[in-house]
Amino acid sequence: xxxxxxxxxxxxxxxxxxxxxxxxxxxxxxxxxxxxxxxxxxxxxxxxxxxxxxxxxxxxxxxxxxxxxxxxxxxxxxxxxxxxxxxxxxxxxxxxxxxxxxxxxxxxxxxxxxxxxxxxxxxxxxxxxxxxxxxxxxxxxxxxxxxxxxxxxxxxxxxxxxxxxxxxxxxxxxxxxxxxxxxxxxxxxxxxxxxxxxxxxxxxxxxxxxxxxxxxxxxxxxxxxxxxxxxxxxxxxxxxxxxxxxxxxxxxxxxxxxxxxxxxxxxxxxxxxxxxxxxxxxxxxxxxxxxxxxxxxxxxxxxxxxxxxxxxxxxxxxxxxxxxxxxxxxxxxxxxxxxxxxxxxxxxxxxxxxxxxxxxxxxxxxxxxxx
Amino acid sequence: xxxxxxxxxxxxxxxxxxxxxxxxxxxxxxxxxxxxxxxxxxxxxxxxxxxxxxxxxxxxxxxxxxxxxxxxxxxxxxxxxxxxxxxxxxxxxxxxxxxxxxxxxxxxxxxxxxxxxxxxxxxxxxxxxxxxxxxxxxxxxxxxxxxxxxxxxxxxxxxxxxxxxxxxxxxxxxxxxxxxxxxxxxxxxxxxxxxxxxxxxxxxxxxxxxxxxxxxxxxxxxxxxxxxxxxxxxxxxxxxxxxxxxxxxxxxxxxxxxxxxxxxxxxxxxxxxxxxxxxxxxxxxxxxxxxxxxxxxxxxxxxxxxxxxxxxxxx
Amino acid sequence: xxxxxxxxxxxxxxxxxxxxxxxxxxxxxxxxxxxxxxxxxxxxxxxxxxxxxxxxxxxxxxxxxxxxxxxxxxxxxxxxxxxxxxxxxxxxxxxxxxxxxxxxxxxxxxxxxxxxxxxxxxxxxxxxxxxxxxxxxxxxxxxxxxxxxxxxxxxxxxxxxxxxxxxxxxxxxxxxxxxxxxxxxxxxxxxxxxxxxxxxxxxxxxxxxxxxxxxxxxxxxxxxxxxxxxxxxxxxxxxxxxxxxxxxxxxxxxxxxxxxxxxxxxxxxxxxxxxxxxxxxxxxxxxxxxxxxxxxxxxxxxxxxxxxxxxxxxxxxxxxxxxxxxxxxxxxxxxxxxxxxxxxxxxxxxxxxxxxxxxxxxxxxxxxxxxxxxxxxxxxxxxxxxxxxxxxxxxxxxxxxxxxxxxxxxxxxxxxxxxxxxxxxxxxxxxxxxxxxxxxxxxxxxxxxxxxxxxxxxxxxxxxxxxxxxxxxxxxxxxxxxxxxxxxxxxxxxxxxxxxxxxxxxxxx
Lengths: 371, 315, 509
Description:
Helices cover about 75% and strands about 0% of the residues of chain A. By secondary structure, chain A is mainly alpha-helical. Chain A has two domains: about 1-30 and about 320-360, no CATH class; about 50-315, ABC transporter involved in vitamin B12 uptake, BtuC (Orthogonal Bundle). Chain A starts with a helix and ends in a 13-residue tail after the last helix. Chain C is an alpha/beta fold. The longest helix of chain C is centred in the C-terminal third of the chain and has 16 residues, at about 440-455. Chains in contact: A-B, A-C, B-C. At the A-B interface, helix 6, helix 12 and helix 14 of A face helix 3, helix 4, helix 10 and helix 12 of B.
């Protein structure tokens, strides 16, 4: 029965993925692009050279960081759709820190920059977390609203207080900050590419998150509050505090992702810097089953999709919005599949159908402990 | 007649509220039946695009007059289909409604943007729907201009408020919807197909959201762009809580919010010194404030909102 | 839906089988009911009675077997089909929409009144009054359901079912929420109705079965083990047949007075969920080494009292004292640390975290103590060992302690909760409906454990709906009525009649 369970789970995921691909193909057909060619470009294009491969990892870093935070939130019973806005606030804080103290040595400034990003994201997230915990405000709505607000905040700073003085002189007025000092920039891992040491940070944090959630009392509290808030309360766990903590942690990771992006990739704050990582991170978290061991490969896979989609935009004229379509369909497919995966009843039905068709059977049909 | 600041704000406020009103009324049916659809935003995006499309292609031609009507029909049809898709995911597959809604939103936003870039490319305008001043009433000083000098869709939208009230409270279907959202087991035990009622509500809600989206592109902005909807679909969902799941409350909420928007515009036009970005932030901040303050309302909503119905589940 | 279907002269169930994940709920069940007959369906919790009746009422589909009405085979795909044939069910949890009126609730199911855009509420109202007067079941058609008491709501359910044209009534545990007097009243009414209707009623209260039924069928583990005339058997016979063996539920033998007071409530005022004052000046004392039973019809403040004691509900007035210390405004963590144990009402959502493993559930309150963690890091080894020890000591049936808590049967989940609470050796334990929905074997075990804890010096506040359980186990019995303790009796003075009167609010002298 356990082998069947595995096969059943795998089949469901496969069906979901195929459904997602099918829906995407429909849209591609509608705009006259060849679905098969597009998929091929997406999946093979990036592997053509070293640069392409490192680009996958460059995308995977912020995706991993955001997804780790999302996983903490989801497992603690609070849904964070605000990673996009939290990233932006993290970028603002990080950039602010970097350009305010350009003379500090790298060993001090760089960690402070990352920390500033964490604080920026965490503080922004604490708004939605507190609203949910103490006023019962639906956190999906509040985080979505905060995203829109954050975008305006960010634009305001970029066009105003944080704008590069050089832009004002030359009159070009591009909303971007001054370039970060060298001591605030993450070193490159592979020369000639954009891959930076943020990758190591992401991997280390993934291990930390695993340990945190499953091997510490803090993680136990969060998971209990997320799985069954009533029982957690009855066991003496402070559920409201857990919700806020989880949301803040989630924002911290999004903020770090932002700091890493500005410090490792762009080296200055620009418009459209978050590039939708806040939303893509949600899909990566779901795809990775909300577990660090699943999130890392899921982030790499998604990095591949993003780089590939970029390539198709240039070569085949498929608009970048296709990535949104793919993300949307994947989310729908994953949440639908989840219900079938957890549904013991459907599983038993499927098992009985299977035994009827193939004539094989299993002595132990129990799906759980019974007395 | 010179019009003051207040007149400007109010007369803009009424048409600005239509998109919100339509989408929110539709969402009210969804939530009354027990499902909340955050994908409303995505449906509005698609509705905005599809509403715009025929008007764009038929512009200046012989069929120009029908372009607008065709746009609305297409948008509503797409809304029904997307509502159907959402019902499949949340009612039949019993998926988590919040995340599924975000998925639908991304899908709608992405598809609208993709198709727009491919078929139209740049930002272009259309003539849209002309105003139709109600004879007699529109001549009333001050009030006439605010209330009775708008395009027909505005009048239709406000007429849908009492119509929705009647549908929800005075018809058998409305009774079923209310039962499905509050006590689905009871409805089931009396032979009502709870899932079918939810499907129907979601399709109706989708049609209205699509209509709201088409209004945005055809009547309000008279053009289409990626960020046209800008979160109105989410605000529409929040408005249902604010309006206590009642058509009249929702109408009040929609007007209140659109006033915030027209206030923002009037500030810009009036040359009052206020940072542009903060003015744009206003409606979103308002939503959060309203949600924070309206916590008592949540207790009177449909008690089974957000919980998928599973007859085989032993309670 | 046709009203006034042809009378049911004979109803037959043959070979009905139904499976749920991991459970065979109904195993080849065959039954029959004749016109005007009352059949009692008896069995332990989990024996399959409700499932079987849900199939008959059209809510579930059987995996195998047939239903025959008046010789004709029928298939019920929805409750509508069942009603068309004259079969209607009154469920244990009432199927009424709270914020609609009685008339609207009945109109919901009267399909004939659903003309396209118009809802004929007047006709529904007329029908309600007609049925209500004919069967002497007074209801107010214009009242909102949430305004009605439990007894009144049950009358509404009966009237509703009759309005839909039921000729055969299925009643699922009809007396579970009634006082003894209301129960007698209901049984009289039902007896009168048998002149026109047949009745199948589910119950595990054997004296009611004796009072009302003509025939009785006993289910055990989903199969019929007995089917015969009620008059030929005594309640003891039936009990033995129900469980398959002689059950001797442990009784409380000793009685010692004058021990120290460990938990005390004085003038307690607590608000309920709907804003009303659920506890209105309540006084209660729990002594060490005693079991204090709290009897009362559910909804009189029991839940709020338990939650006030455990720190889960804010206290508006009065005090709670634990071991001499004022604990009125403390949170759950403080109460747990002070030595208060709690077995909550809803084991699935309040007692365990279903997704956590059994061993994780067993340390749900102690995960941060030195035994199970080095400052913040969990000791996985210690957690596992603890799980194994408790699994053996409390006979928890599960594949391993790594199995998900929610996958266990009701009785075993209760054992997990009991194990966790008792292992902490609480000075006071509050047990709310500890054996509800639990089979007799587990019930026996739980009662024995509670008596052991009492012998060891712990005080137990036993809140239960089962008068038998309270009378068997308690040293003293307090009756709660409308948020106050009406009277406290010693177990010798407490008889079923006296308790019944007190539960209904009739204070003696």
